[in-house]
Design brief:
- The protein is an alpha+beta fold.
- It is built from 18 helices and 29 strands.
- The chain is about 25% helix and about 25% strand.
- The strands form ten sheets. It has a four-stranded antiparallel sheet with strand order 11-10-15-14, with no helix packed on it. Strands 19-21-22-20 form a four-stranded mixed sheet.
- Helix 4 runs parallel beside helix 14, helix 11 packs parallel to helix 13 and helix 14 runs parallel beside helix 16.
- The longest helix has 18 residues.
- The chain is elongated, with a radius of gyration of 35 Å.
- It comes from Brevibacillus parabrevis.
- This is Hint domain-containing protein.
- One of its GO terms (biological process) is intein-mediated protein splicing.
- InterPro entries: Hint_dom_N, Hint_dom_sf, Intein_N.
């Protein structure tokens, strides 16, 4: 990638603000306020393009850059549900720069400014280096609310043809011959709320008929979320995300077409909130349709709220993500809900979260936030609901293999992520989304964290999810995937502010640490982790993830070469002869009983006792073959590190230096992955220094400390 191409792309992406290359800045001309407050993060007085070397040598090597640009963790493992951005994709990072000398490094925060008064941490940009009432009914002109229909109005109806793969639908206008309802202030003790396709919803009577993908009909009160599918106006199956049974205060209205009922369903199917369902004619003639048009054994299927329904569909009550079960209460328990499309969702029966789910807050922390954070009550649940729905829809587009669910009825303040029935699921509770002042930015920041938990990046918690603080760190990569350019910057800044002030600050001091996580990050560590991810730095050490220069050589030892009879087998020396050679060398004390090379071997070493039964010429040939093997036998140097090394690394012997000069034959990882085993030709009683290459990384991505990359040893 040419740096000029990145610079040009930054200028296009960040327009109309100006973008300047940091290498060309005359810092004496820069306003001191811009330096002190990092005005560059908002393009004031302009945006900065990081130094090219800083991007390629520092930023592009961080775990965050790997996650964002390559959709891989630091060890090259692909991240699930992640699509790499395009070539030259721009992102904000930061650099620690000396405005007097123009020196720069990757230090951040106080570690940057402690270097002197001329050092500032500034935001700059790099590029990826690689790579019931109100139900809308379809009409010829579009749609209108069901209560607005009058007799004689036009409505779209479907002719349906079932085939092996689904249904074909053709839509034609028909005339409304029946239109009647309860009026807007009616009360319905039992209604069914259905959420479909992620964002769509409809409230209907329990006997309302829906078209299934196989061309059959099924009543609303027998639908099973996660199992049944509805049908869109285009004939495409639509997943049912939620089915709720509950009280409803508002109007209920029915219409029917003028087509005479003849035992067929064609001409009586309408578009209801984008889904195909039956008109009133089908409901009143249901008995005549059961044999031909209802799903098999329809009347034997349990209905919502029955114990049999729960027993048959146990996944809905034991850990299914999309199911509410809201039963009607006694009259004296009823409460008026201002909005006519509201169910009473006071948490009587809600999603059951599995015990092995990852959560945004620990249980104790969630209790604290629930007690202290200001919230809207359930009568105000509509405030911000569209924002939550938008956020879920937005993330569904970028992460289509994850099911996102807003569980309005859950009282606790938390979010969850888990895997069940082959699906990944993210649930954010009504307790969280009802926090006053908690907007889109805070919601998407939590969603991004839960996605990062599901990506199962190392280090992991005991359940196999990405650990808490590292999920905070990687969450900014998820946000960058969803929000482009400056949208990401503004979303991140507002999001982290909402998280800190409305959520984390509501946690009591005694619950500061996240119990249950292997690293038990405090609130401060979590904020630092998110910030490090945003600035493309390594995470804080307390997060448990990769540490900048955290890998160190701790010791090196060497042992004599160890030979076996197999070492002496050649084209001229058979296995039987090799065994005799080995025993002779042990007898001559050239080798120990264990095969260690105990004597100095040179071209003058007396090996005349070998091959005594061979002719003089052959004896000389075979003896020199043995001498060559002894002369080139290598010692093993064990280099120990403070952290396990990455198992996916290929080790180049030429990159390992031994002084005084000694030839390194090969390098491999020991059974203990904290150790490298290096084969080299060494001399006894000589003090050696081994230097390992900077490219080495630990298994969690920590880079090598340049001041801790050597060790001394002696072959005794």
């Amino acid at each position: 990638m040419a740096w000029e191409n990145c610079l040009e792309n930054l200028r296009v992406s960040l327009a109309p603000k100006q973008v300047l290359d940091m290498d060309t800045i005359d810092w004496k001309q820069v306003n001191q306020d811009a330096l002190d407050n990092d005005g560059f993060k908002k393009g004031d007085p302009y945006y900065l393009a990081c130094q090219g070397r800083h991007c390629t040598e520092n930023v592009n090597q961080t775990p965050q850059e790997h996650a964002l640009c390559q959709c891989k963790d630091i060890n090259g493992k692909p991240l699930p549900d992640c699509k790499p951005p395009s070539f030259l994709y721009p992102f904000n990072a930061s650099v620690c720069v000396n405005i007097e000398t123009k020196e720069f490094n990757s230090k951040s925060g106080r570690s940057c400014t402690k270097q002197g008064d001329s050092w500032y941490q500034l935001t700059c940009y790099c590029c990826c280096s690689c790579f019931a009432y109100g139900t809308q009914i379809g009409i010829p002109e579009g749609s209108k609310a069901i209560e607005q229909f009058s007799i004689g109005d036009q409505v779209l109806t479907a002719n349906v043809t079932a085939h092996g793969d689904g249904v074909n639908l053709s839509w034609t206008p028909a005339t409304v011959s029946f239109s009647s309802g309860t009026g807007p202030d009616g009360y319905q003790p039992t209604m069914v709320f259905i959420r479909h396709g992620g964002a769509g919803s409809i409230i209907v009577t329990p006997d309302h008929l829906f078209l299934m993908p196989n061309g059959k009909l099924k009543r609303a009160n027998r639908l099973v979320p996660g199992v049944d599918f509805l049908v869109s106006a285009e004939g495409v199956p639509v997943e049912i995300n939620e089915v709720s049974l509950g009280e409803y205060r508002g109007g209920v209205h029915h219409i029917a077409t003028d087509k005479e009922f003849s035992g067929e369903i064609s001409g009586h199917l309408l578009i209801s909130e984008g889904i195909v369902s039956g008109d009133f004619n089908l409901q009143i003639h249901a008995a005549a349709l059961k044999e031909a048009f209802f799903v098999d054994d329809h009347d034997e299927l349990p209905t919502i709220g029955q114990p049999e329904y729960e027993q048959t569909n146990t996944e809905l009550l034991s850990d299914e993500y999309t199911s509410f079960l809201l039963m009607a209460g006694d009259d004296d328990e009823k409460k008026i809900v201002p909005h006519t499309r509201k169910f009473y969702v006071h948490g009587k029966h809600t999603t059951v979260i599995p015990n092995d789910a990852a959560s945004y807050l620990s249980q104790a922390q969630a209790v604290d936030v629930g007690n202290h954070a200001p919230k809207y009550d359930f009568s105000e649940v509509g405030i911000g609901y569209a924002t939550v729905s938008y956020a879920l829809k937005l993330f569904q587009g970028f992460y289509p293999d994850i099911v996102f669910h807003h569980d309005v009825g859950r009282m606790e303040t938390n979010a969850y992520a888990f895997e069940q029935y082959g699906k990944q699921v993210v649930v954010i509770t009504g307790g969280m989304t009802r926090i006053k002042g908690f907007g889109l930015e805070g919601i998407v920041t939590i969603l991004a964290h839960m996605i990062a938990r599901l990506q199962k990046i190392q280090p992991q918690d005991e359940l196999g999810y990405t650990s808490v603080a590292m999920a905070d760190y990687y969450s900014t990569s998820v946000l960058r995937n969803v929000f482009f350019g400056n949208m990401y910057v503004t979303t991140f800044e507002s999001g982290i502010k909402q998280i800190a002030e409305l959520v984390l600050d509501s946690i009591d001091e005694e619950n500061d640490a996240y119990e249950g996580d292997p690293f038990a990050p405090t609130r401060e560590v979590r904020i630092d982790s998110i910030t490090a991810g945003n600035t493309m730095n390594f995470p804080p050490e307390e997060a448990g993830g990769p540490v900048l220069e955290g890998l160190e050589v701790t010791a090196a030892t060497a042992v004599l070469p160890v030979l076996t009879p197999r070492h002496f087998v050649t084209d001229d020396i058979s296995e039987e002869m090799a065994e005799e050679v080995y025993q002779s060398l042990v007898a001559a004390k050239v080798l120990s009983e264990e095969g260690e090379l105990t004597a100095e071997v040179s071209v003058d070493t007396d090996l005349s006792a070998l091959f005594s039964e061979q002719s003089e010429g052959l004896k000389r040939l075979l003896t020199e073959e043995v001498r060559y093997i002894l002369l080139h036998a290598t010692s093993t140097v064990s280099v120990t590190f403070n952290l396990p090394l990455s198992t996916g690394t290929a080790f180049d012997p030429k990159a390992f230096l031994i002084s005084p000069e000694a030839k390194v034959k090969f390098v491999r990882l020991g059974e203990d992955t904290n150790t490298l085993l290096i084969s080299a030709s060494l001399q006894k009683e000589v003090e050696y220094t081994i230097t390992v290459p900077r490219i080495l990384k630990s298994d969690n991505g920590s880079t090598l400390n340049p001041d801790k990359k050597t060790a001394t040893f002696t072959l005794a």
